Every structure is written in C-alpha cells, then in structure tokens.
From TrEMBL:
The lineage of its organism: Bacteria, Bacillati, Actinomycetota, Actinomycetes, Kitasatosporales. Pyruvate binds at T54, V210. Coiled coil: none annotated. SMART domains: DHDPS. GO terms for biological process: diaminopimelate biosynthetic process; lysine biosynthetic process via diaminopimelate. HAMAP family: DapA (MF_00418). InterPro entries: Aldolase_TIM, DapA, DapA-like, Schiff_base-form_aldolases_AS, Schiff_base-form_aldolases_CS. Its EC number is 4.3.3.7. Pathway: Amino-acid biosynthesis; L-lysine biosynthesis via DAP pathway; (S)-tetrahydrodipicolinate from L-aspartate: step 3/4. Homotetramer; dimer of dimers. The gene is dapA. It catalyses: L-aspartate 4-semialdehyde + pyruvate = (2S,4S)-4-hydroxy-2,3,4,5-tetrahydrodipicolinate + H2O + H(+). It comes from Streptomyces nodosus. This is 4-hydroxy-tetrahydrodipicolinate synthase. Its main location: cytoplasm. The record marks T53, Y116 as: Part of a proton relay during catalysis.
Amino acid sequence: MTTPALPTPPFGRALCAMVTPFTEEGALDLDGAQRLAGRLVDEGCDGLVLSGTTGESPTTTDAEKAALVRAVREAVGTRASLVAGVGTADTRHTVELSLAAEKAGADGLLVVTPYYSRPPQDAVQAHFREIADASGLPLMLYDIPGRTGTRIEPETMIRLAEHPRITAVKDCAYDLLGTQKVLARTELAYYTGCDEQVLPLYALGGTGYVSTVANVAPRQFRAVLDAFDTGVTREAARLQRRLLPLIELMMAAGLPGTVTAKSLLTHLDLPSGPVRPPLRPAPPQTTEALLTAYKELIDGP
C-alpha cells in the first residue's frame, strides 16, 4: 500500500477556535471580535475558526454568525483563513448556514457530526455529503463524539474523503489508532482539536491544530510547530510540555474551554465579555489559578 503524501494545509497550520466576544449586556461585540482576531493573526495564527464550540455557536443566532464572519474578514483581510462553524443537528439548517457563511466571506466550513439524534454511519455520511454538495467551500469535518454522541468512524471518514470538497478534519475523537488509519489511506488534512495533542498528532503527519487555548497563547502554540518543522524535536517537546499546566486548567478542570478562555481574556484586558447562558462565568479561584499559570508560561524560558 502506498502512503499518501502529506496534504497541503487547506486552512494553514495554526488555527485558533476563537471566542465570540459579547458586550456586558450580552450583545454581539463586532468591534471586539475584530480587535481579537487582529491580535491572534499578529501573534501567529494563520487561520481562525468562528462560531465553533468555543465560539458559543449553540447560543448565537444565524444572523450573528454571518455578521461575525463579515466583521472578521474585514479585520484580517487575506492574512488568515476563516473557517465558519455551521454544524447543527438538522441537515437543512446546516445547509442554510453553509450558504450564508459562503456569502459572508468564509474560506471553509466546520461541520460537526449531527448531535442528539445519534444517526447511524450511513446517515452521517449522507449528511456531510449533502452539505459538501450545497456550496463551493471546502469542509472540515468535526469529529467530537464526547459532545455529539456519535463518532465519524474511520471507514466512514475514508469514504467521505473521496468527496472533492471534504478536505480536512478537526480531530477530537481521542483515538490515535483510528486517526492513523485515516491518515494512511487518505489525503485529509488532520487538525487536532485537543490542545494536549498538538505535537503528537503533528509528528504523526497531522496538519496542525484548532486550539482553544491559543486564544490567550497563540505565539506559544505556533512555536511548537515551528520547532518541529526545523527539526528541533526536543525543543518542540519542551514547548508542548510548557503549555500543559495552562491546557489542563483551561480544558480539563471541569469547566468548558469557552468559560476559562473568556475568564482569562477578560482579566488580560482583551476582547471577550460574558458567556451566554446556560454557561456561567468561572469562579474567582479558577480565574486566579488561570492567571498564575498564564504568567508562568509567558514569563518562563
């Protein structure tokens, strides 16, 4: 069996799953979104994922999602790829959001597995194909069974890779064996959505990452990839390990990454604002721990 060549990154390598800034009253803060997007790109992100899990897509309206794409595109121009989260539990609604994102200026679509209804694999495949057929934009499939209840099985992923507009995967399946099977048999660009796996997946032939923690540490995440690309693998491993305390506090301490990211951004005087219900703000002790870990990362060697 011939192993496919490593794919060209369709959306860049270093992508941030950007939070959606709100005003203190809870309205969409487009000015804040533009300022945050500009900072992320200046600090090393070559792609931004908007209205994903971290972007609170379940609680933003269709109109807000389109407005966010338009505003961020205006802010960053062609300096970064914009991938719009359009996934829902409803195929027809997802198609509508896909067309709206294309019209608003997105470069690609992040499409999560339909959730709650737990469709079988043939229905999962049909769902993604219908969305890929509906617009001219490339798709990044979002495999996160811990949230959706349904895996995109490796064999399903391999069949979906035959579609010319299904080009990438955001991998949150925590199954490196399954991921390697797909990498060996397709040219899909794999982006880890698990911040602690940035270096492991990249070393296995992944394309890069879609990171929540990069909202606050974009330069530090980019440095891991840059070190590996220059052949300094021990340094890449050291840089990945330096990120782990902050990753653990933000992603594995019992609160959603949206909550911890917005808490830290707010205390760093960066655009953020509150989370929308049912999410609730982080308690003061969590924020204090986040600030300590962040300062140690920034000030360390």
